[in-house]
């Protein structure tokens, strides 16, 4: 659905936020390297292709350095004269570091672009090179490309990965207490009650990091409001965030409070994972992108995943999916043509398969097989019962963004500073400042 701001002034306000705020999701080059790529490309592109050049790739995925070295090595088999340095920055600092570099004419040549509004805003402002018509771009569906496509249809990035959020669980703990994957919301609460009565923390959860608020609500919420159909009504303006169905989705999050760890308001994403990895918590609402990290930290951990259960028996369980960023080219890079060669490589099945195998993640490239069984199960669930991460996909705009507003309001909810109704009202008030169906 197209969303149009009420005026050009409002659009500039939204972009100003993008250049000042640090959106959170999962990981920019160092200040010393951020000044690379400051001039327009040379006229003789063919001569450039023969010369040895060094490009820098910025990312928020600090944990993926070894894998990107393998991907780049594969790229270099065809393009040995194009050296690429993978230079990630901590995920919570990436947006600020990148945006500051871009504003001053620097930044990496190849950029891991945040999905949807955050990345598209950089493109429409002229910081990202348009790649509409890039060889291989037609590999992807329109829905996948939408994560990096501007309002006028200009494409700014090659999709990087598909993220799917569901509930991981410790199989040994479930077996110990004769528990099974819950088929309804009530069964999941009963499972949590059984775990709690046996002094096992039911959910590895913390409200310290804002992005965890929106991600978890994006996964749990559809059980309350019904999934994709209601999300489409939000996008069309037919429904509001103050609708009883959406309010119920926030109430579900509040209802889980008794099953969170002690002092959970001070627990961040890394500590959440640690609770699950060490067997202190039995369930973990998280994306497939974290499965490989969990396994690397505890190779002996036996864990599986289930979809968020529906409210009633016979209802539709859901998993939440979205595009996790794109590969883009800095419009100010002096080696844009060479950078585009890597983007073309990222559209191929060869790249997609290597990415999926090495990362244990779901590639957006069609036809790529997922080797890791748990991630394959995530992908299978997404193929049949996926619903959009609606606050990220369609409502990550405004000043502050509606996504950030939800995150802050929910943190207040868990600190008993907000009620469920106040969270919904605050979110809708923010949406009303910019959203025009």
Helix and strand topology:
Layout: H1 8-18, H2 45-50, E1 53-59, H3 65-76, E2 82-88, H4 91-103, E3 110-113, H5 117-124, H6 142-145, E4 158-159, E5 162-170, H7 171-176, H8 185-197, E6 201-203, H9 210-220, H10 222-225, H11 228-236, H12 244-255, H13 269-277, E7 281-287, H14 291-297, E8 303-306, E9 319-323, E10 326-329, H15 336-345, H16 349-359, H17 373-385, E11 386-388, H18 390-394, H19 402-414, H20 420-432
Parallel strand pairs: 1-2, 1-3, 6-7, 9-11
Antiparallel strand pairs: 3-10, 4-10, 5-7, 5-8, 5-9
Description:
It is a single chain. The protein has two domains: 198 residues, 3-Layer(aba) Sandwich (D-Maltodextrin-Binding Protein, domain 2), CATH 3.40.190.10; 200 residues, D-Maltodextrin-Binding Protein, domain 2 (3-Layer(aba) Sandwich), CATH 3.40.190.10. Helices cover 43% and strands 13% of the residues. Strands 5, 6, 7, 8, 9 and 11 form a six-stranded mixed sheet that branches. The protein has a five-stranded mixed sheet with strand order 2-1-3-10-4, with helices on both faces. With 437 residues, the protein is α/β, with parallel strands linked by helices. Strand 1, helix 3 and strand 2 form a beta-alpha-beta unit. The chain is built from 20 helices and eleven strands.
């Amino acid at each position: 659905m197209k969303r149009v701001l009420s005026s050009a002034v409002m659009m500039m306000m939204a972009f100003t936020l993008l250049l000042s705020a640090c959106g959170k999701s999962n990981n920019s080059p160092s200040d010393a390297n951020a000044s690379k790529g400051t001039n327009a490309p040379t006229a003789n592109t063919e001569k450039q292709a023969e010369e040895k050049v060094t490009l820098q790739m910025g990312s928020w995925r600090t944990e993926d350095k070894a894998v990107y070295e393998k991907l780049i090595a594969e790229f270099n088999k065809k393009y040995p004269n194009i050296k690429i340095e993978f230079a990630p920055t901590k995920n919570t600092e990436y947006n600020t570091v990148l945006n500051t570099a871009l504003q001053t004419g620097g930044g990496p040549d190849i950029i891991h672009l945040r999905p949807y509004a955050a990345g598209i805003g950089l493109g429409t402002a002229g910081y990202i090179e348009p790649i509409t018509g890039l060889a291989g771009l037609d590999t992807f569906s329109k829905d996948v490309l939408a994560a990096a496509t501007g309002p006028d249809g200009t494409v700014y990035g090659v999709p990087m990965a598909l993220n799917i959020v569901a509930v991981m669980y410790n199989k040994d703990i479930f077996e110990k207490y004769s528990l099974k994957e819950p088929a309804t919301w009530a069964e999941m609460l009963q499972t949590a009650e059984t775990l709690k009565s046996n002094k096992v923390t039911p959910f590895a959860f913390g409200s310290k990091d804002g992005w965890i608020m929106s991600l978890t609500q994006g996964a749990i919420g559809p059980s309350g409001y019904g999934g994709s159909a209601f999300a489409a009504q939000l996008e069309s303006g037919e429904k509001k965030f103050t609708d009883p169905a959406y309010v119920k989705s926030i109430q579900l999050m509040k209802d889980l409070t008794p099953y969170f760890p002690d002092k959970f308001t001070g627990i961040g994403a890394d500590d959440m994972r640690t609770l699950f990895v060490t067997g202190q918590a039995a369930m973990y609402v998280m994306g497939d992108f974290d499965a490989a990290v969990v396994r690397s930290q505890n190779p002996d951990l036996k864990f599986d995943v289930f979809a968020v259960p529906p409210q009633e028996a016979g209802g539709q369980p859901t998993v939440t999916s979205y595009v996790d960023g794109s590969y883009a080219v800095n419009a100010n890079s002096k080696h844009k043509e060479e950078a585009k060669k890597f983007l073309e490589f990222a559209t191929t099945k060869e790249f997609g398969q290597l990415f999926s195998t090495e990362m244990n993640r779901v590639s957006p490239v069609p036809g790529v097989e997922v080797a890791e069984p748990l991630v394959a199960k995530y992908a299978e669930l997404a193929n049949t019962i996926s619903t959009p991460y609606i606050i990220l996909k369609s409502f990550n705009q405004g000043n502050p963004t509606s996504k950030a507003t939800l995150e802050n309001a929910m943190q207040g909810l868990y600190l008993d500073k907000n009620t469920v109704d106040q969270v919904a009202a605050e979110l809708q008030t923010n949406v009303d400042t910019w959203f025009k169906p």
